[in-house]
Amino acid sequence: MEMINATGRRKASVARVYLTKGDGKIVVNGKKVEDYFPTAHIRANVVAPFETVQVENLYDLKVNVKGGGFKGQSEAIRMAISRALVKLNEDFRKPLKDKKFLMRDARAVERKKYGRPKARKSFQFSKR
Question: What is the pTM of this model?
Fold first, then answer.
């Protein structure tokens, strides 16, 4: 098996994943996944596609991710891993699609409007 690469996006984050045969090592931006994502619930997003298709500890991952925060980055990585697994084996598509790991979540922060403190919040109204 050669190297399989895929891209995932979420909010302002873009993740590129390189999947190879191995023993389950995950490296994110040159660091171990435990060091890059210290909180367990965010790290669970990264390994969720492997647990869904029951292929933990079979593949090594090298991940480059930029932009956004921890949550957006972890969900971008999750999407990229799911896409790479589908490239590897088309039978993985159904369980990953059922959990919505292959769907791009297009929600992003709404822009700030002029004359307002935030996107929708307005200053206190005074009638008199």
Answer: 0.89
Read off the CATH number of the domain in which 73 is found: 3.30.230.10
Closest CA to 1 of 92, 65, 87, 83: 87
| Domain around 85 | 4-98
Domain membership flag for residue 40: yes
Flag whether 119 is in a domain.
no
Chain centre to alpha carbon of residue 123: 36
Encode pLDDT of 65-109 as tens digits. 999 999 999 999 999 999 999 999 999 999 999 999 999 999 999
Beta carbons within 8 Å of 61's beta carbon, 6+ residues apart: 17, 18, 19, 25, 26, 27, 81
Close Cβ partners of 69 (under 8 Å, ≥ 6 residues apart):
11, 13
Contacts of 91 (CB under 8 A, 6+ apart): none
